Input
Amino acid sequence: ACGDVEGKFDVLFNRVRAIQKKSGNFDLLLCVGNFFGSTPDAEWEEYKTGIKKAPIQTYVLGANNQETVKYFQEADGCELAENITYLGRKGIFTGSSGLQIVYLSGTESLTEPVSGYSFSPKDVSSLRTMLCSTSQFKGVDILLTSPWPKYVGNFGNSSGEVDTKKCGSALISSLATSLKPRYHFAALEKSYYERLPYRNHVVLQENAQHATRFIALANVGNSEKKKYLYAFSIVPMKLMDTAELVKQPPDVTENPYRKSGKETSIGKQIPIPEEESACQFFFDLNEKQGRKRSSTGRDSKSPHPKQPRKPPQPPGPCWFCLASPEVEKHLVVNIGTHCYLALAKGGLSDDHVLILPIGHYQSVVELSAEVVEEVEKYKSTLRRFFKNRGKRCVLFERNYKSHHLQLQVIPVPLSCCATDDIKDAFITQAQEQQIELLEIPEHSDIKQIAQPGAAYFYVELDTGEKLFHRIKKNFPLQFGREVLASEAILNIPNKSDWRQCQISKEEEEILARRFRKDFEPFDFTLDD
Output
């Protein structure tokens, strides 16, 4: 983890190289505080253009002042340069090992609307709702914020020249109280402070819980030689034995955000809205009377079926989370345990469908193993279904300016063209638009190529061949549709924009009913 970089990229990355040479490679570099400074952009341009490259996968928080807002154009995060990713305004990053990192960019603002470099009580509340709504919630592995939490010095060792009763954010104190991070990193005060670990439970009143370590880091290359890098090894909470996880360090203190008169209110939680059951919408697609499907998609043998684990929830309204009131449920044509199929609105054809996760995931890269498994099952089932109807299917995903994963599945009649023609059309049109579309190994996983938070576009052909583009700046939102609608493939160029292809709700309902009926013989969710 690293404190304020303030544009000193060479100093930071040279130091990281030296540490890695001595101690071996690390997995991630997490930067809190001001990543960009008031220095000229010449040094940054070398990284942005690829002349220089960060030696480690680096994740950074967003702006803390108006001057640096210009570097962070995408609220949901994006790749800033090779190996350097902006996480976004707020959210959860889950590593491939299951390590859970919660991040909140900017400084505190108590008024709405907030500026591009601030967060509000609403932002903190939505993060809390996303994570703390389930009874199984124990805490998170890492919390990244730029400001310190207010009162963090209570009951602890001296915080030096920083007065924690006056400095920092009370909203972050509240968030840390709720999320119970094992590590909490912050910066901005140009000071190094490793607080003694503190408890997340009340002794003799609550079961033992893990301790939190708060570490504030100084600015990179500071003249006082204050510590700005902190190296640590962590096993994800979900992989740890409970007894090992809750073992208390000998120097543990009371929780700084509790029991201190006026500070007592910090720990009070904003009420969390009731979550809708994960199986709430598993009811209207099975038209056979007298037969109910359990939430696993199989016949229920037990009068008390086991409740499924609740899927991830969105921070706000989402058009594609199945439990959301915004979903156009008449377009839903099949529901599995972790994913569902829906007809595309304004589809390229009557059987253009989307594979969507039931819970809130932004991209394929962020899916859990069980969701990936069901996505693959839907993909192979749809290939068989369309092959039976004299068609091959093309899949594509655009993880750019989208909040919920939509895996587009477009059938192409075998009589139209060969797979090689489709591949050539994508490559040719990409070259015409200066888009670098690379072929990746057939059995490789997108997760091996794209990091969570990175923007990308990828196509999968019926042969298993995959084409991938890492989005660095702008990308045409309709690119996938435009290629498939072109004369080289479906020859319906007038349908390249979905908004030009919309039909009435009644017509959509007819198409959905027809697809459900045709798909039923292939429906793996009905298997006993």
Observations:
- The mean pLDDT is 86.
- The longest strand covers residues 391-399.
- Residues 57 and 197 are 28 Å apart (CA to CA).
